[in-house]
Amino acid sequence: MMEANTSRMINLNGSNYHVWKGKMEDLLYVKDYYLPVFTTDKPESKTDAEWNILHRQVCGYIRQWVDDNVLNHISGETHARSLWNKLEQLYARKTGNNKLFLIKQMMSLKYHDGTPVTDHLNSFQGIINQLQGMGIKFEDEIQGLWLLGTLPDSWETFRTSLSNSAPDGIITMELAKGSVLNEEMRRKSQGSSSHSDVLVTESRGRSQSRGPGNKGKHRSKSKGKFDDFECYHCGRKGHTIRFCRQLKKEKKKSDYNNQKNHKKDEGGNGNAEVNTATDEFLICSDLDMVNITHDDSSWVVDSGATCHVTSQRDFYSSYTPGNFGNVRMGNNGLSKIAGIGDICLKFDTGIELVLHNVKHVPDMRLNLISAGLLDDDGYSNNFGNGIWKLTRGSLIVARGKRCSKLYMTHPKIFKDRVNAVVNTDMTDLWHKRLGHMSEKGMSLLLKRNVLPGVHDIHLKKCSHCLAGKQNRVSFKSHPPSRKESILDLVHSDVCGPMKTRTLGGCSYFVTFIDDHSRKVWVYTLKSKDQVFEVFKQFHASVERQTGKKLKCIRTDNGGEYIGPFDAYCRDHGIRHQKSPPKTPQLNGLAERMNRTLMERVRCLLSHAGLPNSFWGEALNTAVHVINLTPCVPLSFDVPDRVWSGKDVSYRHLRVFGCKAFVHIPKDERSKLDVKSKPCVFLGYGQDEFGYRLYDPVHKKLIRSRDVVFVEDQTLKDAEKKDTVPQHNDDVTDLDPVPPQHVESPLDNDVQNDEQHDTDAPEQPEVDEEFHSEIPVPDVPPFVPLRRSTRDRHPSTRFSANEYVLLTDGGEPECYAEAMEDEHKREWVEAMQDEMNSLHEKNTFELVKLPKGKRALKNKWVYKVKTEEHTSQPRYKARLVVKGFSQRKGIDFDEIFSPVVKMGSIRVVLGLAASLDLEVEQMDVKTAFLHGDLDKEIYMEQPEGFQVKGKEGYVCRLQKSLYGLKQAPRQWYKKFESVMGEQNYRKTTSDHCVFFQRFGDDDFIILLLYVDDMLIVGKNAERITQLN
């Protein structure tokens, strides 16, 4: 038996199973232990006792090569094959999750410059082997191409060369691996490392690559490679900034002055030093040395730096000296941090950027801006085409250019900026963004580091807070308590009526407050009798979000909370606690919340200068902010975080009522139109990244994410022509003057009020400058108009009664009108035909309505159709479900249904014309009735067709009906499945184009637009068969 070398054997730790398995299999064969593991029958040469002992020996041997966390699972196994199978089940199960995890790991695998290529190849091959062990195998060429796809952009030339030189254009896995290894060796041998050149700030000795500016005897008259380059520093041609002699002279002089200043600072610095932990900050992420010449005002934008760094002490607007640890250079050298502070930069865009916690490192050669920290602050770094852009939304904050392999920018330094003023301004800004939150609440958020730019909280007296919040001295109250779990108890109360209605016509609002999380929901109402419907919406929503049941609701025993409300609570097992009459203190949480909301609303409207008719929008914004506010009963936790269990963000908050510029999409403007329009910020949409805005010019609501805010300006600063129309519901004019414009109430996002937008007629804009340049012709002398002497008579017109004789009776709007119509018999026959069609297709069956379900209403739609080939009208009746009352997630999910693209229609018709193909058009009668439903939906019996003896029954829909939200989608899915059974395939570019090939020149193409079809083919008989 050959000797086994176990020095290279590894222990199984759970994550390296496939590598361990291969090594262990080899080891078992070498040790002659393979029979108990890989065979089931006992050899004839061994007795039962010997065979059992061998099993125990193999189990013991395998257990020597596993970690303790794995050993716990197999410690009791005495049969070698069972032990082996158990490990296979634990760490190599062919489940969908394991396969998906490996696929994602393979898709995210990328080679990083500077790391050994062999490590990357091992990782890649390891994933391939694990996928093969689970039954997923890739062709050899796909593996090779995938490996090349994991290489970074710096290998693009290598990829192109290998693709062009591959035999027959096929890149196998072996060819790809060999070529990658050879390329790494070539780069190392030429002294050009495979990893990218990134700035390193520690350099000793002279550079190994001296440019033409370093040689004094360079006499060549031939054209050099820098002759067409222009220096960014001195502006002269023939060299780059790296070899600029003028810049080097200035650098030497600056270094001499810095040394003198540094000695002076060390000797007489009167600031108190702060000692901190000796942390190490990584400035640069690579090992290459790049020497560039620069001036002191240059800043390098470094994606590898973890902090902002400068060596210039006089750049700081606020500075704290002390021992703040070290920074680690790219060559693993350490440099001491002498202090930290803030630096204000002003770029050529006119925008100021304050860098916070900038490290002062005197040994640094360049100033660094950390791209990663800018990302954390909400900015976006864009690199490409030799240009660096720093943006925030659609606003360009800063620009820079590429010098050598680095991106540099040259901002101005604001040395006299006072940090206290900046902090005060930022504190005041966040106070407005947070809906005028209290100083205590903002202090709690500051401790959690969620308020960028704020260092301490000290609020000045806010006139808007006093106008909205000032109260009498409070009485003593009991300490706050709360339920143990979400939805154990919900408090509710109605507030109103308000003297001024919202833009949606609402006068009340109702609040719901979860006692455990203190999360608040608010719905605006036109009348109190809407409370019951709103509560049913709230009940379904919160139970679906949390998966928990609402157990108890506490109200003030108002009239809106009794009757149907009580019955609904009993049917759903909800306990309804009602406070005794005239004791609102027992429903104190909801009462206090209503007071808090109205205080916030008054503050927001006062600061924004908006009319009272916007109180609904201000209310929604106040609720959004309150759910992000630390709460005393939650031990200063945030309601949204307690409710969802997820961290919350404050970066999306903006000042209510401020000016905002909304981007206009391309399809809504011409090439010369402006790209944005001024609006008023009114709150937040369904998700925190969408904003609700009001367009004062067109008087309509806009929802957009592409917004630039001017938070220090409100509507009061806008021009008079942009003033939002005021509402006055308190005064009723008994003889009103015809209005100059129609006011457009906005819909409220929470209560889903109907929106009645009527745009005021726009006046044409006149370019005065343009018209002033047009030459004005000479004005002819005034000639008086000649008045006609003809007798005038009023024109003869038909009277209203005469016009009535020319009109028909119209079509009935409902069943009752149809029964009173002169064509009653025709309408009854049409409805009977529709019911017969529904019964033939087994569209529904009569059942009793299950408990907890509700039946949708329906209506008859009547239409008189006149055919071209006959003068007799055709009377048609259709049963339509009132789908607007469906609830998402309960009665329907997806509703999207594709239709054929117009481009596809043009292409197919052009093909038919050029190839002389047969073209037929057809439509499907009652197409939507063919769709199968995947939801349990009930409908009331159609009016006029109730089954005798079963008047209390409802129709359980088995097929889709017109009016259902998902009816078009279900019809398309049915049509798609039928076409698949007929061996028709749909194109990838248009899912409503189906085709089938029967031969070289024989095929059929079918286009579907809802229930209309266009069929094109060579053989007319096949088209007829398809019909």
UniProtKB/TrEMBL annotation:
This is Retrovirus-related Pol polyprotein from transposon TNT 1-94. It holds the Pfam family gag_pre-integrs. Residues 760-770 have a biased composition (Acidic residues). Keywords: Aspartyl protease, Hydrolase, Metal-binding, Protease, Zinc, Zinc-finger. One of its GO terms (molecular function) is nucleic acid binding. Residues 718-730 have a biased composition (Basic and acidic residues). Residues 231-246 form the CCHC-type domain. Residues 184-223, 252-272, 718-794 are annotated as: Disordered. Gene3D superfamilies: Ribonuclease H-like superfamily/Ribonuclease H, Zinc finger, CCHC-type. Residues 476-647 form the Integrase catalytic domain. SUPFAM superfamilies: DNA/RNA polymerases, Retrovirus zinc finger-like domains, Ribonuclease H-like. GO terms for biological process: DNA integration; proteolysis. It comes from Cuscuta epithymum.
